[in-house]
């Protein structure tokens, strides 16, 4: 499985993805699920993927192929709005899934993929969009400025509790990492290395960090998170009958 | 939906259940999902339920009917081991589901139920068992001394992180409540009032607490939990390139 998320804040965007892939419980491996495209100086895209690994790789290859092909076709370099980029990727994703549907469904497999697309095209605001396997999309909202794909449940309450548009990008990165390590703790199919990317509005440049397995930073992150979470539990009020009256 | 959990600790057992029920997004209501049976002085059972509300009510009615009927049949008063009680409830649960399967599947509904059974029968150790819709069961293990049914994902990482057999019952109750409010925060189908029950080994008595909507205790619980969780996020180490080397 997979866990990817994106936050849309007043200062910019935060992306975080795990890298664990598996076929059932077998063939556990590490693949990058976060990809950055900068096909022209006036635009930057971050694409996160969940679902069929084969499907997402073919979608990425098709995007690159379109960018390299002679002009006249729609590509990430020609779209003028982020929602057009989402529809473009959604169309390719559907085409790839359709191409393999009969063969895959014959063995009970699902070749579809879900994406989060974020970034900015000059003239528009930075944004994040979730692209469904059917090719349609939704945005993050101002009230709920995050999107998730893959194993979304384990780390959701942290985003609900902590993510608000006005927080700074550094804090937002920490919230994203808290959500990720909570998920990895509860679900074997999500794991490090983690890819973190931070986009500051109107910069058209991305700060990328890979947090590797066995790094001092990851160990410290998990340790501090564990200690403070246990501390939070300890601070909860005692359950006593006299407190429970409505 | 539902969220119920049970912890099996050195000192005793902790049970926690929400009370929200719904049919789709409609007909949201409040029903008790935790039930205590004490059919003889040498035994005490706590039963938590998830799944079809109609199904679980009929199972409870069948259990009571068997207890009230003349002797000669298996009941919660006649079983001599907790696993026999689990198999007994599993059999009734399957019979109830079978009785309604054709009518329910005709409208695309599922009438099956999942239970957590906990308690003690004199001569045996206190234990908790998860009863599947198929009628078989698993116990909590010493390494993973908790069971969950219903919306289990949202609050799982907290149990993974914090529950260990040697902790005291008071702390265990707080961990259970943390897991519950994290779930209710992320999922509308889980909500208060919450029923908390604590069983001390060899007592054959249960301490029950209902934590109502709008109670001062619940407000304080959610406030303290939120503050300390945000504090934990703030304490996480900064993401800096130099920290990220493996």
Gross morphology of chain A: globular
Largest sheet of chain A: 5 strands, antiparallel
Taking pLDDT < 50 over at least 5 consecutive residues as the criterion, the unreliable ranges of chain A are none
Estimated radius of gyration of chain A = 19 Å
The helicity of chain A comes to: 25-40%
Q: How many structural domains does the protein architecture of chain A include?
A: 1
Number of helices of chain A: 5
Beta-strand percent range of chain A: 25-35%
Mind explaining what this structure looks like?
Chain A is an alpha+beta fold and 246 residues long. Chain A contains 5 helices and 12 strands. The first copy, chain A, has a 5-stranded antiparallel β-sheet with strand order 10-1-2-11-12, covered by helices on one side. In chain A, strand 1 and strand 2 form a beta hairpin. Chain A is globular, with a radius of gyration of 19 Å. The model of chain A has no long low-confidence stretch (mean pLDDT 92). At the A-B interface, helix 3, helix 4, strand 12 and helix 5 of A face helix 3, helix 4, strand 12 and helix 5 of B.
